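Tutorial handout. Part one gives the primary structure; part two gives the three-dimensional structure as tokens.
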Amino acid sequence: MAQILSPLPGTFYRSSSPDKPPYKADGDTVAAGDVIGLIEVMKSFHEVRAEVAGSNIRFLADNEEPVMAGAPLADLD
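Part two.
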């Protein structure tokens, strides 16, 4: 099992905009380098990419949830 951690503090978003589907849904397979969400810091958006491949992603952070740097965002099998 692996975790995807927040690279910086801010607000976590699972999609690029409210009317778009999430980058990944719970249970999806993830390849290394896939974008799984965005962190917004002072109106600047930063992509969160998976560093490792895995299956069955499970999000630990909710959409629009404030997160700290190093906080776990998702688990991968």
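Part three, for discussion. The mean pLDDT is 96. The radius of gyration is 11 Å.
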